[in-house]
Write a structure and sequence with these properties.
single chain, alpha+beta, 3 domains, five-stranded antiparallel beta sheet, three-stranded antiparallel beta sheet, 14 helices, about 40% helix, about 15% strand, extended
């Protein structure tokens, strides 16, 4: 039975890497031919004009580099992890640097934006991202990009359930899938920067409970999508998108290539040197923890050792003595060397040491001072955001195409500015702590001199909140205050007249789905009372 592309992609694992000529690791951990795409013959299902010999060789080098990066991110820093029965130490700077950059990148999340008048389109796109587990998926994409320099998102329409059965058309949804970069082989279009003319996705797939595997492949071009199990073609379908529906995300742009830069490539040698030095310190300390006894001018067999471990019966010569081997190494110099390596790692990774020590008191630190402290990391994040923003725009266009041409629900219909309906962007949040009191004070001063509006300050203060509803609630509170003042004035001027009870419910607290019903009930009671008085 043919395997559904979406179901197959959902089963991808990061266990196998292409590339037997691995200059970083001489032997792959898994030598099973079915589990090694290079040994099995990757690209065998693809036309030669798409994947030339030169392309295959460069891909093997790239996959070997990816494996090297993943090894260090996952803490596999030693070919032999044991030394005389003791595990060698690993101080994994690579993982914490990648993770910290992702934390600063995502901060409090991001939102899809649009041009003025098309906010409804942005909200609809944001909902689609949320249905695809926006936070989890973007975290995976950004970590993959930080480790390898590249990440990929596959945009499709989910028309089958997990068992491969067809879903009713009204249950079809747009599916966003994060792809592991070591399984993706893009063919770049020479006429369009960053665009693909084809893309191959290829990885091992478990097909039974006994652990047997096949190689699943999916070849995507603007014209068709083909799937294969091993070398046997399974399905062929027309590509409804009319373009390669895989979006590449660059971590940091590198001139002369479409691939991105890894965050850890240049610090791996430093991390290796740090761990090598740390292992030397471990061996020195371990050796002197149980010191070796040295005997001068005598043999141990002729000496006597008492109950309190005191050597006796030493020969007469003055040079005869017994002592323990002392630690004469200058470990302070070695520790200073480690500190130097650590500082260099922070500098080369553009990650200030303070980024890992946020527990320090910063209550009296101004926002400008904090930004200057974290400036290298913030600059690094901004460079990452450039590639991510371009990718999100491409993904959004594919989503809108799928909704219009495949699902029959054009999101463009929500746009007021139809000509710019496809123009979207990304709103990022700041990772630095917010001082709301300082923001309010600044907003008050700006409002006083007339260089901003209340609506703009509402948008700034209430990030990620429905600003339209907040505006209505603020207006309702102001209206309620005016009505209460009016009722109080009437009561003072005309005697003790009971105020209209509706005025109590006109504020934002009363703005809910029961408000109209409550208003009508009060009005009906007032009408009954007036009728009784007239009788």
């Amino acid at each position: 039975m043919p395997i559904s592309p979406s179901n197959a992609l959902a089963s991808m694992r990061r266990s196998t890497f292409t590339g037997t000529n691995d200059k970083y690791r001489p032997v792959l951990r898994n030598t099973n031919l079915k589990n090694s795409l290079a040994d099995y013959g990757f690209f065998d299902i693809a036309p030669e004009e798409l994947f030339t010999t030169t392309y295959k060789e460069s891909s093997q080098k790239r996959m070997s580099a990816y494996k090297h990066f993943y090894d260090f991110y996952n803490g596999n820093h030693w070919l032999n992890e044991w030394d005389n029965g003791e595990r060698k130490p690993v101080n994994n700077f690579c993982k914490v640097i990648v993770d910290r950059a992702v934390d600063f990148f995502l901060a409090r999340g991001f939102q899809i934006s649009s041009v003025e008048g098309n906010e409804a389109v942005a909200e609809a796109l944001d909902m689609i991202w949320e249905k695809n587990y926006k936070s989890l998926m973007t975290t995976k994409l950004l970590k993959s990009a930080g480790i390898t320099g590249d990440a990929y998102c596959y945009v499709s329409v989910e028309s089958k359930d997990k068992k491969g059965k067809d879903l009713p058309r009204d249950q079809w949804t747009v599916k966003l899938t994060s792809l592991e970069p070591q399984y993706v082989y893009p063919v770049w279009d020479d006429t369009r920067i960053g665009a693909m003319s084809a893309c191959l996705i290829q990885f091992p797939l478990n097909t039974s409970t006994n652990g047997s595997q096949t190689i699943f492949s999916m070849l995507i071009t603007p014209e068709y999508i083909k799937t294969f199990n091993d070398a046997e073609e399974q399905t062929t379908m027309e590509n409804p998108f009319g373009e390669v529906n895989v979006v590449h995300i660059t971590n940091d742009v590198e001139p002369g290539t479409n691939f991105g830069n890894s965050d850890i490539e240049h610090i791996i040698p430093l991390n290796e040197q740090y761990n090598t030095t740390l292992n030397s310190i471990r061996r020195i300390i371990s050796y002197h923890a149980e010191p070796t006894t040295i005997i001068y001018g005598a043999k141990a067999s002729r000496l006597e050792k008492g109950a309190n471990r005191v050597w006796s019966n030493l020969p007469k010569p003055q040079d005869a003595k017994v002592e323990n081997l002392a630690l004469d190494s200058d470990l302070n110099a070695v520790y200073k060397y480690l500190e130097g390596i650590e500082s260099m790692i922070y500098r080369m990774s553009k990650t200030p040491r303070q980024a890992f020590e946020l527990s320090q008191g910063i209550s009296n630190t101004s926002g400008i001072a904090l930004e200057l402290t974290f400036q290298p990391l913030l600059d690094k994040v901004r460079r990452k955001q450039q590639g991510f923003t371009v990718a999100v725009k491409k993904i959004n266009k594919l989503i809108m195409f799928a909704h219009r041409e495949i699902l029959g629900e054009p999101l463009e219909a929500l746009a007021v500015n139809q000509e710019r309906a496809l123009e979207t962007g990304v709103k990022y949040t700041s990772p630095l702590p917010r001082d709301e009191q300082a923001e309010i004070d600044s907003a008050t001063k700006k409002l006083a001199v007339g260089i901003t509006s209340k609506a703009e300050e509402i948008r700034k203060v209430n990030r990620g909140v429905n600003t339209e509803r907040i505006s209505l609630e603020i207006l309702a509170d102001e209206m309620q205050a005016l009505m209460l003042k009016w009722e109080q004035a009437k009561a003072i001027s005309k005697g003790l007249i009971a105020p209209q009870p509706e005025s109590v419910f006109t504020g934002s607290v009363g703005m809910n789905e029961d408000f109209v019903t409550l208003q009508q009930s009060i009005a009906a009671l007032n009408e009954e009372e007036s009728q009784e008085e007239s009788l």
